Amino acid sequence: MSQKLAQLAGVTVGDKLELDGKEIKIVAISENYVGHFVYLNRATYEQVYGTSPQDNTYLVKLKDPTPSNTEKEAASFMEKAAISGVVQNTTAIHLFESVASSLNKTMAILVLVSVLLAIVILYNLTNINVAERIRELSTIKVLGFHNKEVTLYIYRETMVLSLVGIALGLVAGHHLHQFLIQMISPATILFYPQVSWEVYALPIVAVTVILALLGVFVNHHLRKVDMLEALKSVE
To answer: Is the entire prediction scored with pTM above 0.85?
Structure first.
């Protein structure tokens, strides 16, 4: 049987599924991304139902599978009295592509918002950290620390916290992805839950670039601060 149907029915290999009043043992589960199917060979069907299966459906493959020709051939089939209905695979394909396209647009917006949120959070936290510890930074700079050492002194905490956030985010994101895939997929469509390594590499690269750019900004900002005036200021 198809995987999506097995998920909806709550069964797995070795379980039994009741179909038309008969119990059928599941020996394998196939990956089928659109629609639900149960596969039985002729011998198994005869053993379960006690009668030979009656073929009532035919699979037709067109030499010209374009949408216009498919519609034309489907209409010609429907004109025949012996045919009660025609199911076009192109319809299922268009449905799947439509759902996937909508999800891709939604994911693109979420990624953009996530990047902007990361920039705002890291920028504000760094600014607050610098403002609260300006006298401390002024002291170590007056003591002879170089500009890069002063920057790393204040920015090292941000980098460590970002690395921890990346690790936790990847783990939480993996489990959230699995949950969302199960929640948003329509009843007749199976979404493949596995993702490529690029999906995990992209946020790491994005956060690394943001950290590098903010590091340049912090270094430039600390160079312009009048350390002596900062030491004179009253807390």
So the answer is: no
Query: Are 29 and 4 a contacting pair, CB within 8 Å?
Result: no
Distance CA 177, CA 180 (A): 5
Q: Among residues of the chain, what percentage have pLDDT more than 70?
A: 95
Please name the residues in contact with 140: beta carbons below 8 A apart, sequence gap of 6 or more. Answer: 149, 150, 153
Which two three-digit tokens encode residue 72?
Answer: 């034309």
pLDDT in tens, 126-155: 888 887 877 777 777 777 778 788 788 888
Distance CA 33, CA 228 (A): 68
Residue-by-residue DSSP string for 112-169: HHHHHHHHHHHHHHHHHHHHHTHHHHHHHHHTT--HHHHHHHHHHHHHHHHHHHHHHH
